[in-house]
Amino acid sequence: MDYSTVLILCSFSFLAGFVDAIIGGGGLIQTPAMLFTLPQYPVPTLIGTTKIPSMFGSLMGAFQYSRRVAVVGRFIGPMMAIAFGASWLGSWTLSQVPNSFMKPLALTILVVVFIYTLTKKDFGQVAHRIVTARQQQTRMWSMGAAIGFYDGFFGPGTGSFLVLGFIALIGFDFLKASAHAKLVNASTNLASTLYFVSEGKILYALAFPMAIANLTGAFLGARLAILKGNRFIRVFFLALIAATIVRFAWDLLR
Fold first, then answer.
1. Cα torsion for 154, 160, 165, 167, to the nearest 10°?
2. Average pLDDT for residues 215-225, to the nearest whole number?
3. CB 47 within 8 A of CB 202
4. pLDDT tens-digit profile of 143-192?
5. Would you call 125 exposed, middle or buried from its count of C-beta atoms within 10 A (0-12, 13-18, 19+)?
6. Where exactly are the transmembrane stretches of this chain (predicted)?
7. Is the pTM of the predicted complex or chain greater than 0.85?
């Protein structure tokens, strides 16, 4: 693998970390770049390699947000643990059964999410408590199990689904939802990383330079999101959902 290839992939990884730190969805940039640039490698190896930079980027985003945004500490820890286990289970399940049915299902959900967010102008703009502490606990832990499994089994759009869940089910605004989503996503990425490491499906010479690039992008993306606030994140969220819809639709129709 020559240096120009590493540099190109690190550039995509930087952009993925930047976008992912703001609203999630960095995998929509990083994973296709890997698949198109290195078609000679097995797909599981390429997917596994992307997990290390994704994990580092998620951790950096989580760190930046946690310094400036209050976190629901008593519930987020168990949610991360549940998401970790669910993500590992999802990765294992992927090795047993096909996941081809997930793309049309995810596409349908994303279209509904896009229309709802676009038409409801105040969605995620102001934090408001809509549930009791017990309901918050139940919903966060259930969300950790469901989206954690999804991330291990399929993956694309995980960050966006987490943000959506924290806004719609818990009552957070975009900024607070992004902060909590990064923590949970870091946990699911760690589980996937450990799974692929145990399977020996990592290109370490590429994974670590990409991790540095992703981490740098995540640092800048999180700082920008915190500086600009909810309106900026909402625009990013809509743009990312639209891009995800186009990508899934293209894959299904071609």
1. 180
2. 93
3. no
4. 999 999 988 887 777 888 898 899 888 888 888 888 899 999 999 989 98
5. middle
6. 45-63, 75-95, 101-119, 140-170, 202-220, 232-250
7. no
